[in-house]
Amino acid sequence: MKLVLWVDDAMVTTSSLELWEQVKDAIDKTSPLSKFGDCTWLLGQEISQSADLKTIRVNQRSKIEALLERYTSVGNPRKTPLPPGWSSQEGWIPTTKQHERETVEKARKAGLDKLGHYKEFIHEFRSLLGALAHIALWCRIDIKQAVFLLARHQARPGIEHWNGLRSILKYLKGTKDLEMIYGSRSTGNDIVRAQVDSDYCGNKADTKSTTGYVIWVYGSVVYCESRKQRATTLSTTEAELVAASDCVKMLRYIRRLLTEDFRINVPTIPLGEDNQGCIHLAHDGGNWKRKRHIRVANSYLYEEVTIHESVAIRYVKSSENVADMMTKCLPAPAFMKHRDTLMGQIDKYWYVKGGNEMKEN
Question: How far apart are the first and last CA of the chain?
Answer without folding.
Answer: 36
